[in-house]
Amino acid sequence: MAVFPQLRLRRLRRSERLRALVRENRVDVGDLIYPMFVVEGKGIRQEVASMPGIFRFSPDQLDAEVEEIATLKIPAVLLFGIPEHKDEVGSSAYAPDGVIQQAVRTIKKLVPELLVITDVCLCEYTIHGHCGIVVGDQIDNDQTLPLLAKTALSHAEAGADIVAPSDMMDGRVKAIRESLDKSGFQHIPILSYAAKYASAFYGPFREAAESAPKFGDRLSYQMDYHNIREALREIEQDIKEGADIIMIKPALAYLDVIRQARNIFNYPLAAYNVSGEYAMVKAAAKQGWLDERKAVLEILAAIKRAGADIIITYHAKEVASWLKSV
Question: Could you tell me the domains of the chain?
Answer without folding.
Answer: 25-325 (3.20.20.70)
